[in-house]
Amino acid sequence: MTDRAFAVVRAGALTSVQDQGRSGHAHLGVPRSGALDRPASDLANRLVGNHAEAAVLETTLNGCAVRPRCAVTVAVTGAPCRVTVDGRPAAWGAPVRVAAGAVLEVGQAAGGVRSYVAFAGGIACEPVLGSRSTDLLSGLGPAPLTDGAVLPLGRESGPPVYADAVPWQGPPRELVLRFGPGPRTDWFTVRSLHTLAKAVYRVSSASNRIGLRTDGPPLERAVHGELPSEGMVLGAVQVPPDGRPVVFLADHPTTGGYPVIAVVKESDLAAAAQAAPGTPIHFVPARRR
After folding, report:
1. Beta bridge partners of 104
2. Is the overall model pTM greater than 0.85, yes or no?
3. In the 8-state DSSP scheme, what is residue 188?
4. 223-232 — which CB contacts under 8 Å span 24+ positions?
5. 96-98 and 72-78 strand pairing
6. Calpha distance 248→213 (Å, rounded)
7. Are strands 280-285 and 175-181 parallel, antiparallel or unpaired?
8. 68 near 102, Cβ under 8 Å?
9. Sign of the CA dihedral with 241 first, then 244, 245, and 250 last
10. Tens digit of each residue's pLDDT (9 = 90 or more) over 198-220
11. CB distance 96 to 83 below 8 Å
């Protein structure tokens, strides 16, 4: 096996390989997938000299630990966390050189949910449909990390980038999701449309890469018949039988049979990726130009 690789020492709660996703395959039933917090993933790649499309690790809540088999420059962004190399503190949000055989530890998220770990050269696992992303819904791409797994690294393509500060807005204390009307707005009562725009929801602990689930007042339907499955898009706000809206994220199904009341702006979904359970959610109608 090549020396340009790293072994997984601690996989964490859920750590997966992600890149910019596999766009253009929804007609085959394949969602986009990819990093939930794209700005954080792009920044990590930029810090280590990678192109934006290079594959990184996306961790969830409690980080991970890896042991590179070669000296490599890494950067950790996204949710702030303690970073160590062989137990010694290292920088978060900056390039860090890790010696061959040293253990890079990405700790518990101090705020937010997901951290991103970029390696100079990117993670070089075999692409599927043009992407190295792990898709939890379809099972495409590499499996989520497990202890002892070994993943290959690509060749370094550019020098690291050092900055005095990196942009990080912090996890949202309140998540504001701007939305436009969905294709089935007319399946809901006027009162439900008012509730969606005025009530305070909270992020449910059942949320995952497929969807941001919510706790809050249920939305009442005006039409109670069955809906044939139809296409779903990123940011679609689907309302299942319990009436509590679900915001579809990167691993969402490409079709669904529950009505979509609204569609959240894609630019607001990175913040949704960092919203911890219990975070208040405000759905805000987007202004029309």
Report:
1. 66, 85
2. yes
3. B
4. 223/186, 223/187, 223/259, 226/257, 227/184, 227/187, 227/257, 227/258, 227/259, 228/257, 229/255, 229/256, 229/257, 230/183, 230/255, 230/256, 230/257, 231/26, 231/255, 232/256, 232/260
5. antiparallel
6. 9
7. parallel
8. yes
9. negative
10. 999 999 999 999 999 999 999 99
11. yes
